[in-house]
Amino acid sequence: MKSTHKKSNKKVQTSAAAMLNLLILFSASEKAAAQNNPGIVGIDHVGINVPDLNKAVTFFSDVLGFTPVTQLGPIPLDAEWKKLNHINPATGAVTIKMINAGNGASIEVFEYADNKGSLNLPNTDDIGASHIAFYVNDITKAVKFLNSKGVKILGEPFTMPSGDTAGETWVYFETPWGSKMELVSYPNGKGYEKANPKTILWSPKNAVVRKTTPDDFDSKKNITIVENHLKIWNEKEEAKRKTLLKQVYASDVEMVDRHFIAQGINDISKFIVELQTKNPEFKFTAKSVETNHNIARLYWQFGSKEKPIVVSGMDLFVIENGKIQKLYVFVDQKE
């Protein structure tokens, strides 16, 4: 590794191509610092204990419309495991069912045979008390449906009038075994979003349905998308570039380089600005474009008018719903 860095430093001193490599390495180090954590990508599932697994699964499937997928057990638990996880020594085997709850985390349901633990649910203000919130597009209809199924609704839906959660409507309901859960809806967004925060809370309403359409296999349209991609990387005016970014890239686009990964339009826009700032006279030009179904390949070069091929490489695109969903960047290595 040390010898590689020495070679890179020599290139920086002797070639304009190294300036681009240095920028890439700089961005990579920024990403590495930002990812100095356990590497958590998201919430996989939420686990809850129930007194009767079959009845709970019936409620989740028949009333809430979820789909049971996998099952483990019954699994006998040894004394050491029980001690480590604070389980009563006399409690029996555990059976676990994983349930797909739509767009988001799954629900992992546990039933302990001959359960010797507390059979009382925690009160709302008890430490460790929790609830699961489910997003719905129309909370009025959702409440009406739950009422028709005999589900206990705790109060009336309430819409937040102001503050960060302005526009959010929510209401709690109770499962047949007494757990508190929630319905929530904010089809027009929440108040905090109007301030254009750097980070937006994830929600199903913003989720992108990732599937190809017949247009995604149109080679002419895909060539146009690639051409607009190049325009974005050469555009110096921020307003024009942002407009093109939204037209060409999916909101959760992922750009994968050998040194780093950029997530979303903002990350890519920031990288473009850094690249243009470091190389104000440079421009990307296309050498060739090829398409295959919803995959496109662009061979490009980057340089000035006097020296147009300082750096060259290839971009590989995955196009879904008429926009670039994935962008893989390959930079040619020069010795």
Secondary structure layout:
Elements: H1 2-14, H2 17-34, E1 45-49, H3 53-63, E2 67-75, H4 79-84, E3 94-100, E4 106-112, E5 132-135, H5 139-148, E6 152-159, E7 169-174, E8 180-185, H6 219-234, H7 238-248, E9 249-256, E10 261-263, H8 264-278, E11 283-292, E12 295-303, E13 311-320, E14 323-331
Parallel strand pairs: 1-4, 5-8, 9-14
Antiparallel strand pairs: 2-3, 3-4, 6-7, 7-8, 9-10, 11-12, 12-13, 13-14
Helix pairs in contact: 1-2, 2-8, 6-7
Top-tier CATH class of the largest domain: Alpha Beta
Q: What is the strand arrangement across the widest sheet?
A: 10-9-14-13-12-11
CATH architecture of the largest domain: Roll
Strand fraction: 25-35%
Largest sheet: 6 strands, mixed
Overall strand count: 14
Give Rg in angstroms: 27 Å
Q: Stretches where pLDDT falls below 50 for ≥5 residues?
A: 1-34
Helix content: 25-40%
Overall structural domain count:
3
C-alpha geometry: elongated
Please identify the structural class as seen in this structure: alpha+beta
Order of helical and strand elements: HHEHEHEEEHEEEHHEEHEEEE
Integer average pLDDT: 86
Distance between the termini: 16 Å
Count helical runs: 8
Q: At the third CATH level, what is the topology name of the largest domain?
A: Nuclear Transport Factor 2, Chain: A
